[in-house]
Amino acid sequence: MDKSLRDRASRVVPGxxxxxxxxxxxxxxxxxxxxxxxxxxIWDVDGRKYLDFMCSWGPIxxxxxxxxxxxxxxxxxxxxxxxxxxxxxxxxLAERVVGLVTHADWALFSKNGxxxxxxxxTLARGAxxxxxxxxxxxxxxxxxxxxxxxxxxxxxxxxAHILYFDYNDVASLEAAVTQAGGDLAAIVVSAFKHDxxxxxxxxxxxxxxxxxxxxxANDAALILDDVRAGFRLTxxxxxxxIGVQPDLSAWSKAIANGYALSAVMGNNRFRDAAAALFAxxxxxxxxxxxxxxxxxxxxxxxxxxxxxxxxxxxxxxxxIAEQARRYNLGVRQSGPVQMPTILxxxxxxxxxxxxxxxxxxxxxxxxxxxxxxxxxxxxxxxDIDHALSVTDDAFKIVAGL
Length: 401
Ligand code: PMP
Hints:
Helix content: 25-40%
Cofactor: pyridoxal 5'-phosphate
Largest sheet: 7 strands, mixed
Bound molecules: 4'-deoxy-4'-aminopyridoxal-5'-phosphate
Radius of gyration: 21 Å
CATH topology of the largest domain: Aspartate Aminotransferase, domain 2
Oligomer: single chain
Number of helices: 11
GO molecular function, one term: transaminase activity
Structural class: alpha/beta
InterPro entries: Aminotrans_3, PyrdxlP-dep_Trfase, PyrdxlP-dep_Trfase_major, PyrdxlP-dep_Trfase_small
Order of helices and strands: HEEEHHEHEEHEHEEEHHHEEHEH
Number of strands: 13
CATH superfamily of the largest domain: Type I PLP-dependent aspartate aminotransferase-like (Major domain)
Strand order of the largest sheet: 4-10-9-8-7-5-6
Strand content: 5-15%
Protein name: Aminotransferase class III-fold pyridoxal phosphate-dependent enzyme
Distance between the termini: 34 Å
Pfam families: Aminotran_3
Shape: globular
């Protein structure tokens, strides 16, 4: 079935599939098409079942097809979704996230993470009347000309006012601020360094504090791109954990457990600017996703989701570390345990990583060889232990035993 869908898609879908979900970006054997998901399991179109460690690249935070979230969405669907204006759900959701997220005094909603990061940048420029925006080299903020990692079709003019620094490197950040002169609108930071194919890095406190201070000194906006990490590590904003508050933040992925929704949140300094900005989209006020989000946040809070994911992620990390030691394999695990990246040392072409994940896939555990993975609230200790029995076999093969 996967094969015949690929053949059909190759005739009517660009490249057979486009963007980050292309199976051609994965080792041989990975399915392109999926049929369904339930809890922490997914089924491909050929009926093969996998224990899922990608969670749809982030959105699934409570587990696939979550009964409470889906019931809330269905209830709303019976009332109406895309209407001539927002529903009551929008106000409820804005109140909810303003109550949860430490730096937020207001929220506006859109659909994709890219909508939210782009709105943050536009808002910072509008509010400050300045142009330069600083990004960390290699950081992902979306797939539009100002930030796409693939410059196909992008003109240098699109990035005329974008400057770069190295994440966690204070000196390079200061140099970029100097380069911006008096024209600094914003510094954009990810919750932590989660660049594709690389070891992840948590934010260094001195770096985060310096970014905050430089924005204050230059009347610029500190923008936190919390699209990937938000509501998975904590419900209060990822940099709340280190005591550094952004002015603006971008959210999506986990916010509605798979329903299409993103958000921009901001403090009072940017309230008037946000009201002045023409931010809009045909589907941005859709009430179903907002109802799903309210239910998602309720369950995450009631079940202390971030803490559960931390405990399960730690169990996985400890187990993998023990196995790598036992098989004498250089394996480095990085990032928060809820969002692990597992890379082999001295594996520049990812040959061992690819082999490892191909072997776990064959045994029904869907992992990624080079991107960070995602835990969900649906992963239980028994699921992690099952995954570890599979990774044990996969390590054995990679070690050539
Ligand atoms: N920022 C970050 C940190 C992301 O991880 C992503 C999505 N991978 C985006 C922005 C863009 O989100 P979307 O794909 O929903 O546009």
